[in-house]
Amino acid sequence: MPFISALNKHPDSKIYLNEGSLSYKQILERVEKIPQTQSPLIFQPEWSFDSLCRIFAAARDNATLMLTPKGALAPDSIPEVLSKGFLLLRTSGSEGAPKWVAHDWSSLKPGLPIEKPITHLAASLMPSHAAALEVLFGAISQGVTLSLGDHWREKNSPMKPDAVAGPPQQLGIWLATKNRILENLKLFYSCADAMQPIWIKKKELVAPNLEIIQVYGCTEAWQAPTKTHPEKPWLVQLTDQSWSLKGNQIQITSSRLAKFWLYADGSMAPLVKPYLLGDEARNIEEGYFQIQSARHEVANFWGQKINLLEIESKLLEVEGIVDATAVSLQDPLAGQSLVLELVLAPSNSEDSMREKLKFLDALLPKGSWVPRFVGNATASKKRRHTRS
């Protein structure tokens, strides 16, 4: 893998974590001591050197690696066809039940668009998120010193990153509070969500010299080949014909698309090309477009906008629900109706769960939602809800 060889190519570059720092050379030495990875390997990653080295070793050995967000339940079994050579990442996707996407290691060519010299890149992302791996692999491939975890945020931290990769909401908070991080920051890579013009307006007032690059991507296909508008960073341009707009949705035919879906019950299905990502976008000017939102995150019920992430979060508070995804469907009367894809903990019946879900009638028009039970988990541990 390119990012593995980069550890040897840039031996003096470093990675800083809460537990300390190691040079690329020292990390490579640790990886070399790890025996052949037993595939498949399933674990919950942290920003730790142990986690990083296990990920690098799995890539080195072409082993199947499943990274699980905190609290998420992995499938009971992994099909034989996925037992070697895949990276499995958790996502709710643009439609359907909670699931995983399976990437062939050989098809992954992640890399940040690092065009300007930067000395120190910090990641404000969860380690199980595809965008975090994009940052990690891409920065290592180019020998950039990295800070991962939270230590660089501390008031007395000696780390002064000149670039940060994180969700645009994080930048919005820093701008609103005039955070000290902005004093040294030259570049912000906006990952995971769409950049909104309101944050750019705040930036012009608080940090006019800060450059923003929108790194658009998705768990199913990693980073899209895009160009950020030089004066309007909330706009991007697709620079590869395998990515395109179909109506107001982004479509991809790239070979970097994940190969399979893997569901909680161990069943699987291929991803069919062309694939609609489910992200709404609209053309603005000269080929540039603005990413509006994921179609599945906001629904319109009798003229009322409902955030599906809020509905999912409330579902995960219900005793007996292990995992949940809210999927909106077109409805000729209500505008949209809601299908609730639910994974139940053991000993919970579908009938008893329907009774527990009646509280939704106070939040949504009665009759506009329907539960769909997609299986039972083998443990009742809830996951902390994160959108992939």
Secondary structure layout:
Blueprint: H1 2-9, E1 14-17, E2 20-23, H2 24-33, E3 41-43, H3 49-60, E4 65-67, E5 86-91, E6 99-104, E7 120-123, H4 130-141, E8 145-148, E9 163-166, H5 168-177, E10 187-190, H6 197-206, E11 211-214, E12 217-218, E13 222-223, E14 226-228, E15 235-238, E16 243-246, E17 249-252, E18 260-263, E19 268-270, E20 275-285, E21 288-294, E22 298-301, E23 304-307, H7 308-315, E24 321-331, E25 335-344, H8 350-356, E26 369-376
Parallel strand pairs: 1-8, 3-4, 4-5, 7-8, 7-9, 9-10, 10-11, 25-26
Antiparallel strand pairs: 1-2, 5-6, 6-18, 12-13, 14-15, 15-21, 16-17, 17-20, 18-19, 20-21, 22-23, 24-25
What does the average pLDDT come to?
Answer: 80
Structural class: alpha/beta
Alpha-carbon distance between the two ends:
24 Å
CATH superfamily of the largest domain: ANL, N-terminal domain
Number of strands: 26
CATH level 3 topology of the largest domain: Rossmann fold
Helix content: 10-25%
- What is the top-level CATH class of the largest domain? Alpha Beta
In the CATH classification, which architecture of the largest domain applies?
Answer: 3-Layer(aba) Sandwich
Kindly give the count of domains.
2
Q: Walk across the major sheet and give the strand order.
A: 2-1-8-7-9-10-11
